[in-house]
Amino acid sequence: MIRTYQINIDDKPAWQSLLKRAPQVNSNDLNQQVEAIINEVKRKKDQALFDYTARFDRCVLDDLSVAKAEIKEAYALVSNKDIELIKNIIARVKNYHEINKPKNTLVDSKDGVCCHKVFSAIESVGLYVPGGSAPLISTLIMLAIPAKAAGCKQVNVCTPVNAQGKIHPLLLVAADLCGVDVIYKIGGAQAIAAMAYGTESVTKVNKIYGPGNSWVTKAKMLVADDIDGAAIDMPAGPSEVLVIAEKQANAQFVAADLLAQAEHGADSQAILITTSNVLANEVIAAINQQLSTLTRHDIIKEALVHSRVLVVKTLEDAFVLANDYAPEHLILQVGDPEKYIDQIHNAGAVFVGQWAAEALGDYVTGSNHVLPTYGYAKSFSGLSTIDFMKAMSVQYVDEKGLLAIGDLAAQLADIEGLTAHKLAVDLRLKALENTAEATCLRS
User: Fold this and answer.
1) Less crowded by CB within 10 Å, the N or C end of the chain?
2) Helix and strand tally (H, E) in the chain?
3) Buried/exposed code over 265-298 (b: 16+ C-beta within 10 A; e: otherwise)
4) pLDDT tens digit string along 141-159?
5) What are 286-323's pLDDT values in tens digits?
6) Higher per-residue pLDDT: 217 or 133
7) Which residues are catalytic?
8) What's the rounded Cα separation, in Å, for the pair 156 and 196?
9) ∠ CA 274-277-279 to the nearest 5 degrees?
10) Dist CA 67 CA 274 (whole Å)
11) What are phi and psi of 13, to 5 degrees?
12) Angle formed by the axes of helices 214-224 and 28-44, to 10°?
């Protein structure tokens, strides 16, 4: 299922082909179908959402939002132990994101010019939490907590229902504990369209966040390209992990980390880069042994088809490959791993040492698990509080400042041929000159 390859670092085309990701669904047919859903939601609004829920989720809803009574009922359906678990995880994530909240800055050049950078929260945000076989409580927390830490006034969630029109009670409890304002019973591309354009029941938001399948991803891209739509967090692709390991690494740990990422979906990718053929063989044996004990083994088997074990000559070679791949998750199972951090240029999140399981980052380290995939770590960062905020520059210029920089601006405007720009500065300089002359005359 997962094969081993010997890598010659000088043969870049060969190893790049081995690091190629599974192609994403991006057909013209998908594009047309998602566009049709978006247009239907824009045209028919709530009615389209009811219709699509009946069609895709096989459920007829009476209301698109979760009532307070349903949230109260959800608390009664879960254990106090689970509630305390959610509270503890929220506290860790909240602590991390509040500490990393950007602070306003002031740059005073001491010549009459002062620039102030002011951060403020995006007023309304929409969070998409996928449905499926398990409630993605961790995804909800990773989206809602930084939104609340940023100070967003309106935090709405869309998540699909099951065939009985229900959302997992623990997901509802988690949303309530996170301080979410409204929970909508909507999934798929239609949920993205509803949040982007608004309907009778769904409030239009300024920015949409969260992972999803190819339909959701395509819908996010389409609404982001529309001036009447909404901004989005980042491009998304299948989950992935890359482990760099030396001979002394624990093969069982490495195998478990690879399998943990592979179980996300059949299109997930797990890659091991090692300097040891012995470790490569031990990890493959451990994968085969552990796989038989896992509930999602059929999905994992499909993911392992396009996963790889790559054997390189040196750790330096391993980091060359890793930076070119730009993984969502990078795990270092090497001796003295801290000294290699400076060699990492492209990764969504890094896990250092044998005890740092990537699954811990998914849930409880506090750092966000919404990360750039599919190579986007070369230009995007993982989700953080700042992604729920925007910055505004405030510039103060007094008479002294105008005299200090006015001629510079006027000269550059003249070079660029923007005479109105030059005039706006020259008029002020002239006014100061006249004021100075008048003051001299009076004195």
Assistant:
1) C
2) 16, 14
3) bbbbbbbbbbbbeebbebbbebbeebbeeeebbe
4) 999 999 999 999 999 999 9
5) 999 999 999 999 999 999 998 999 999 999 999 999 99
6) 217
7) 328-329
8) 12
9) 65
10) 52
11) -55, -35
12) 70
